[in-house]
Amino acid sequence: MLSTTFLVVAFSLASFSHASVLTVTPSGRYQSTCRSIANAISNSSQLFYPNSTQYTADIDHSLVTSTQVSACSVEPGSAADVGVILRILGSTRTPFAVKGGGHAVNPGFSSTTGVQISMTRFSNIELNNATGTVDAGPGVTWDQVYTALDSTGVNVVGGRVPTVGISGLTLGGGYAFTSNQYGLTIDNMAGYELVLPNGTITNVTESNKDLWFALRGGGNNFGIVTKFTYKTVPQGQVWGGTISYNADQLDLVKEALLKFQQKNDTKAALTVPVTYTPAGAIPAALVFYNAPTPAPGIFDDFLAIPTNQSDVKTRSFVDIFNTLSFINFPKNIRYRGRTNGISVTQYSPSVFDAIVNQTLFWGGKIGALNPNVTVSLACEAFLKDLFSHGSDSAYPPDRSRALFPTAVTITYNNASLDDTVSKAVRSLSDTVAAAAVADGQNVSHAAVYPNYALFDTPLEEIYGANLLRLHGIKKAVDPTNVMGLAGGFKI
Ligand SMILES: *[C@@H]1O[C@H](CO)[C@@H](O)[C@H](O)[C@H]1NC(C)=O
Ligand SMILES: *[C@@H]1O[C@H](CO)[C@@H](O)[C@H](O)[C@H]1NC(C)=O
Ligand SMILES: *[C@@H]1O[C@H](CO)[C@@H](O)[C@H](O)[C@H]1NC(C)=O
Ligand SMILES: *[C@@H]1O[C@H](CO)[C@@H](O)[C@H](O)[C@H]1NC(C)=O
Ligand SMILES: *[C@@H]1O[C@H](CO)[C@@H](O)[C@H](O)[C@H]1NC(C)=O
Ligand SMILES: *[C@@H]1O[C@H](CO)[C@@H](O)[C@H](O)[C@H]1NC(C)=O
Ligand SMILES: *[C@@H]1O[C@H](CO)[C@@H](O)[C@H](O)[C@H]1NC(C)=O
Ligand SMILES: *[C@@H]1O[C@H](CO)[C@@H](O)[C@H](O)[C@H]1NC(C)=O
Ligand SMILES: *[C@@H]1O[C@H](CO)[C@@H](O)[C@H](O)[C@H]1NC(C)=O
Ligand SMILES: *[C@@H]1O[C@H](CO)[C@@H](O)[C@H](O)[C@H]1NC(C)=O
Ligand SMILES: *[C@@H]1O[C@H](CO)[C@@H](O)[C@H](O)[C@H]1NC(C)=O
């Protein structure tokens, strides 16, 4: 099995650089805001203090570094109460955070020392076969959505990693197994129910030009989404699985990846993670085909390489989703983590070699300081016309060419290494990007996928020329910058 990981990050704030964060007493500063919220919300919602199990669940994240001790948590049960809460937070200027699935990979992006909003009560998943849409609440995760749609004959274009929530992925863009066929998650939206920063509830559809543009990739800058409506696509049995190789097969896997990129089959999806072990860099191939049998030849190069282990077969979508993960959070150990995305336009031999080199180099270096380290770089090979399926959106700023996001993940469990690992992620990303540039790829300022981007990534590197328009929309929708009280990439 792969032991790749995806993690979260923490700014090196003293308050949460301890593994034992939960024993820290929250600051008394925001208690009056907590009381105001408790008094104002309806009985569909509830506010919790650190003496409750609900609070502990509300502030919890997949990565230790994405968790902070908040003054209180609140679980809104209606869009109206989300509005009530936002108005109180805005008028008291109280820092807050909004948590969907809790898979945020950057510190402070969905955690806070102020008021933690947990969207867990928005857990509805409803297929409307007549309109060809699925309504889903921001508290659910992709495994719940796919499980609910199993055997309905339809599916949505969503996340590739179990435990990832729908809200962060959908607000940031969304690369899917079926993106070569249908585009990103944001290219398959029918609408949103959005609570604006001033507390007003609104429906956003394609006719609302500015918010439609901004919500598709613009993150949590424009309010709080209380319902996502996805367009459905047909879904039958699929074929694929995880093929693990040994370190001595790296060259053959590289050749197979190069050849795969010459092919042009919209039903095929491929991720090739390279993972550090003290014995070498271990490659794998996560293969997916959106039909019960793959087209002849499409994955033959990968199937011909001697494997360590393989579970490739015909199966349901939810079954492959549950096992086909390039981002595996270690179970039972609470990990810290840092991630980034490296945008390339193809995996050339020298880009692949740089990926292997950097995996080994930083795995060895950080492994010497923390034997529990995982370093993984995942090649995500899509088709060249990946971004041709949708209209203008906050991300990606340029739809004329595809960018492959290359997930960089380092997990570890020694808080004193937070800064070291951040620097390692930045350094290895720069090195791999430089290899792509040296190859003639025009990627020195290529947009970085916001859901992978390391916390210090400048906004220009994510939104490019869209930033000006996004600033204008933000100013109009949130003139007092309420959403600036929450973390994240702040437009
Ligand atoms: C919640 O309040 C409404 C009235 O606002 C009331 O009808 C309902 O019974 C209450 N529900 C509970 C569980 O207290
Ligand atoms: C938890 O703490 C809050 C605020 O301090 C207090 O009002 C409440 O009674 C406590 N609940 C329990 C079960 O101790
Ligand atoms: C929904 O529609 C799809 C495609 O039109 C069909 O295959 C499926 O049986 C329908 N599912 C339900 C639950 O009605
Ligand atoms: C949003 O759309 C839904 C479904 O059409 C409707 O029930 C609701 O009233 C709308 N909300 C607003 C604020 O317009
Ligand atoms: C698979 O990989 C593991 C871990 O590297 C190794 O111990 C084992 O011998 C490998 N098995 C095969 C069949 O190559
Ligand atoms: C990676 O490349 C650097 C040169 O850029 C070299 O010094 C280093 O030895 C290489 N590391 C590995 C593990 O191959
Ligand atoms: C990894 O971390 C766990 C939990 O802290 C610890 O029990 C284990 O010994 C560590 N393993 C190594 C190889 O350091
Ligand atoms: C892939 O094939 C389709 C037609 O099947 C064609 O329209 C498209 O341009 C091709 N894309 C590439 C990158 O070759
Ligand atoms: C954590 O890392 C620091 C700095 O490398 C080191 O001094 C310390 O011993 C490590 N702690 C553990 C428990 O390994
Ligand atoms: C290179 O990419 C940038 C976006 O990062 C784009 O603005 C520019 O036009 C591209 N240059 C060429 C020669 O394609
Ligand atoms: C809230 O903001 C929206 C969007 O800017 C605006 O249309 C609406 O009038 C505002 N509502 C209130 C009550 O100020």
TrEMBL record:
Residues 1-19 form the signal peptide. GO terms for molecular function: FAD binding; oxidoreductase activity. Residues 66-235 form the FAD-binding PCMH-type domain. Pfam families: BBE, FAD_binding_4. Keywords: FAD, Flavoprotein, Oxidoreductase, Signal. PANTHER family: BINDING OXIDOREDUCTASE, PUTATIVE (AFU_ORTHOLOGUE AFUA_1G17690)-RELATED, FAD-BINDING PCMH-TYPE DOMAIN-CONTAINING PROTEIN. Belongs to the oxygen-dependent FAD-linked oxidoreductase family. This is FAD-binding domain-containing protein. It comes from Lactarius akahatsu.
